[in-house]
Amino acid sequence: MSTAGLDEFLQARPRLLRIAGRIAGNPHEAEELVQDVWLRWQRTDRTAVADPQAFLVTTVSRLAINLVQSARRRHETAAGSWLADDRIATSPDPCTAAERQEAYADAVRLLHERLSPAERATFVLREGFDYPYRQIAQTLRIATPNARQLVKRARDRLAQAV
Fewer CB within 10 Å, N side or C side of the chain? Predict the structure, then answer.
């Protein structure tokens, strides 16, 4: 394995974890998805990859959507423990950190309750990472107007929840 491949993956890893976590909704599953991306990245002929970052983001997005849509996942009941964030508060005010953590947990829960996996993926990529619709469409292998429509539906559903 070349050092360039490792460096590219390590550079993308935090973003991949955020994307996988927001789509899958579970930090442990997000970590497993990123590990799967790493294995695929090792097996990939990187000379054929025009944009390594786009390849990695596309791969983790598709794997996360597949996970959420899988039959195993549809029949499981969420325990709710995934909402607890294990990270140590870095804010000087513990109340502010707790409020921020609670708001984040509520936002993620709302995404999972109100949006389909496709809507969630497009919404996260557009609103969370500011991807252009064209790139979202390429990543998810859908038409650009479909990506726009999915983001619009997601926004509408989330607005109704408020």
Answer: C
